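Q: Convert this sequence to C-alpha cells.
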Amino acid sequence: MAKVIVWNLMTLEGFFEGGEKWDLDFHGDAWGDELSDLSSEFGRKAGLLVFGRVTYEGMKAYWTSTQEEGETKTFMNALPKLVASRSHTGSDWNNTTVTGDIVGEIRRRKARPGKDIYVFGSAELTESLLAAGLVDEIMIAVAPVTIGRGTPLFKPNAEKRKYALIAARPLKNGTVILHYGVKPVA
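A:
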C-alpha cells in the first residue's frame, strides 16, 4: 500500500508562500546541496506527484520551460501526476491526470501496491486530504527566515490534529526538516 506524504517548505512563521501567489523567494534561504539531494531522493521514491490546481499551474509552467537540467527536472516531467481541479478537465503536461474527486482518487491509488504518493505545495489540497484521513506523513523544511505576511500552510480553522515525530534534521544552512507521521483520529 502506498503512503501519502506531504512535502513543503515554509518560513518560521508558517507561510508556504509570501503575500502574492508564487512568492517563493524564501526558498533561496533553504535551498542548498542537502535539499537538492533530498529532491532527487523524492524522485526515486515517488510513484505519483499530486498538486492542487494552482500549484499544478505553477509547476507545469516552470518544469516544462526551465533551462535547468538535472534529476529533479527529469522526474518532475516524467513521473505520473494527479491534479485536483473542478475547473480543468485535462492537461498537456506529460503523464498528468486531472480529477474533480481528489479524495476518492487518492483513496483508490493509496490502496494499490506501489511507490509513495507525494503532495507538493497545495495547502488547500493538503487540508482536504488531512480531513479525509488520507495523509500518512508530513515533511516540512522550515527555512530560517520570517517574511511578515503570506499564506499559511496549515489553515487556522482546521481541527486539532496530532503528529508523531519521525525525524528532525538540521541542515548546514539553518533550515530544519521536520518529518511527522499523522496520528489517526481516535
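Residues 1 and 113 are 4 Å apart (CA to CA).
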